[in-house]
Amino acid sequence: MFRHSARSTQLMALVSVAVSGCLLAGCSSDSSGSASSSGPLEVWTRSDAVDAKAYQKIFAAFTKKTGIKVDYKPVVDFDKLLQQRAASKNLPDVTINDMGSLGNYQSQGLLEPVDKSAIAGGSDLTDKSWVGATGIDGKYYGVPFSAQAQGMYIRKDWLAKVGKKAPTTWAELLDVAKAFTTKDPDGDGKADTYGILSPGSTTNGYLSWWTSNFVFQAGGEFVGTTGDGKYEATAASDATVAGVKYAEGLYCDSKVVQPSALTMTTGDSYPFFDQGKVGIVLTGPYQFPRFDATPGKDKYEIIPVPKGPAGNTVLAEGENVYLMAGSKKTAEQKKLAEFLITPEAQKIGMTAPEAPVVRLSVNKTVDNAAVYKDDRWKPFEDAYNNSSEPFPSAINYQPIRQDTADALNKLFADCGKDVKGAMATLDNTVQQELKSQGVAK
Length: 441
What we know:
alpha/beta, four-stranded mixed beta sheet, D-Maltodextrin-Binding Protein, domain 2, single chain, about 45% helix, 17 helices, seven-stranded mixed beta sheet
């Protein structure tokens, strides 16, 4: 995910024109990357060193099965480097990245469309995962690879210490968060614990990512579809405002989030849970290895996210396999995509010892519970299947997520400001962004 606002749309459009022109013209390159028909298949993932180990196992199995070699590159600063490669007219052959990146990449002409009916094993994938691979024109521009939803980690030993049960509603969540903040659940005699962890930084739109869960639970959203392939800003709706007000209250009224939360990314904030300073975390299932180590598997439990006025809907996310435009290895691209959705590859990705890169399998023939042998995954699977909502991936949602995070960060920093008014201002900003993309109602 990269920082991008409506103000940079013109720059992105210029890149798009340059890249699209090159791809349509069949530009060539001397490298062994996508512009060459020889050499290994160049594959990128948005990954750190830990996730890279899992991908290496998957690609090794692919090479063993097909004989096709893979030049694998785990990339942390993914979007910046991808734009550089786009500008140099030499994209990698295949990338695995967030489904939320689809609209941005497709609008730039970086992706090859996918014939769903021609993908071996494509019918075994869930319908919900295919929705996240669909472009604004109704065509598919990716092959689903992994799915996930948010869940709630909570210190069960702290619950016992403060005499509370696991929360099931917003009111109970606030009550527990206050108790964790004020009743010394770690027993050290110091006022140094906090109720709920929040990555409130504007970097990569983190605060929007976190707050969206509460907005969904209030029945709102920042962008709504009109049902005809068009979208409209809904930040000023009563439901969205209600969700934002609840999240703002955690910062401003009850003050149950960790100190300096508005400057923190997820990586900055997670140590507060590791080190026993925060008792509740709303995040995905990929944090099991970390939190099992510290604070320890015996110290916390996973619970369904507490219900707001409209239910307990959480953010759904996932990753797609993208076949990058301009590649001369189209047959190899397709074979890799087909392998990645097989039960064999999905299970390798789910059982990587360091961290799973396939969180919930997109393949309907894979039994998540049987693979993981861990009941803690069930709340995440139930949430994804029954009560989750993704950001709209068909459009370029990245600038909207960034503008939303900027607005929320300012609002939460200036406690006491008019939430409705702030959301009305954001609504105008989002609507202008939708218009600039040509997708506004």
